[in-house]
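In this supplementary section we document a worked example of the pipeline. Step one takes a protein sequence of length 124 as its only input; no multiple sequence alignment statistics are reported here. Step two produces a three-dimensional model, which step three serialises into structure tokens for compact storage. The input and output of this example are shown verbatim.
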Amino acid sequence: QLQLVESGGGLVQPGGSLRLSCAASGAALDYFAVGWFRQAPGSEREAISCMSSSDGSTYYLDSVKGRFTISRDKHKYTVYLQMDSLKPEDTAVYYCAATEGLVCSRSVGFYDYWGQGTQVTVSS
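The serialised model returned by step three reads:
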């Protein structure tokens, strides 16, 4: 059974950076499509990035393009989300998700495994 644990959230000033980690246990992520989502209070959970297992192709939400970068470590047990030039509107709980498959998706319902979430607050 795959388990995911996020870490790296916290309080950061506007313009700052954070690196979120999503550590997998129970299986390596070689054949899993992975995604990062976020949910702000009163809002639906939205996909901000995902990475396919087939070719490493990626997707980014328009509002984070050029600021956020998804990556995997070479041993395929951890997925990262590097977040730069953070804005107050990036404040949310961030979740990583995974599902067996080659191509990732922006759909919440596509993913079978979820982490517990990590809070990111961008404020001066």
